[in-house]
Amino acid sequence: MNTVWMTVAAYLLGSISFAVISSKLFGIADPRTYGSKNPGATNVLRSGNKAAAVVTLIGDCVKGWLAVWLAVRFQEQLQIGDGTIALVAIAVFLGHLWPVFFRFVGGKGVATALGVLLGLNPWLGLATLVTWLAVAFAFRYSSLAALVAALFAPFYYGLLFGFEPQLAAVFIMCVLLIFRHRKNISNLIAGKESRFGSKNKDAAKAKK
Question: Distances in Å between the alpha carbon of 40 and those of 64, 108, 183, 198?
């Protein structure tokens, strides 16, 4: 029973879209109406409002971290196994991708995935973050950085902890993240992908 309610709670937590919330708080256009139409920090940044983008990034990351951290923290008290922690990790990520509160239209999951990895182990999250930063600063493509980090995350987990149930969760999460970036992959190949931090003219014109 604990496994069921924890998984459902994680999904509902993941369904909270900080991109939409922060955009309303800062009085800017809904991120689902401009740019990539992705409710995530990178697209919010295209509005030119850095504060809203930071709030989005932190909020999406924290919800992923919180769900997993609580499961790990109370694992013994609730008598749950590693399999439940893996399910919680996947559930909060799925909530971000397909949020029940926003008609199942969610983000691509980069920040939430980072939060999940940090919740599983800080070193795992840090290694993945460093990979993202290195690629992002070298090539200025947020999507490329996310894709490379996603490819390395399961490798980092296996290297640090070996084959555990959480490794399966990390692998599934990274496969889904790559799937959500399929349009970005096409744009990268075609040379049409927007570089990190570029503003979108539609964002300034769009109404809340």
Answer: 14, 7, 15, 14
Question: Nearest CA to 166 among 176, 177, 178, 156?
Answer: 156
Q: Which two tokens stand for residue 26?
A: 């800062």
Between CA 193 and CA 183 the distance in angstroms is: 9
Check residue 135 and report its DSSP letter. H
Q: Give the dihedral sign, CA 176/15/166/145.
A: positive
CA distance linking residue 154 with residue 175, whole number of Å: 10
One-letter amino acid for residue 171 of the chain: F
Selection from 181, 179, 173 nearest residue 94 by Cα? 173
Give the separation between CA 156 and CA 106, rounded to whole angstroms: 27
Contact 107, 61 (CB under 8 A): no
Instruction: List, for residues 77-115, the tens digit of each pLDDT value.
Output: 999 999 999 999 999 999 999 999 998 999 999 999 999
CA distance 113 to 108: 9
**pTM of the entire predicted model:** 0.91
- Taking the C-alpha atoms of residue 89 and residue 74, their distance in angstroms, rounded to an integer, is 15
- The packing angle between helices 165-180 and 142-161, to 10°, is 170
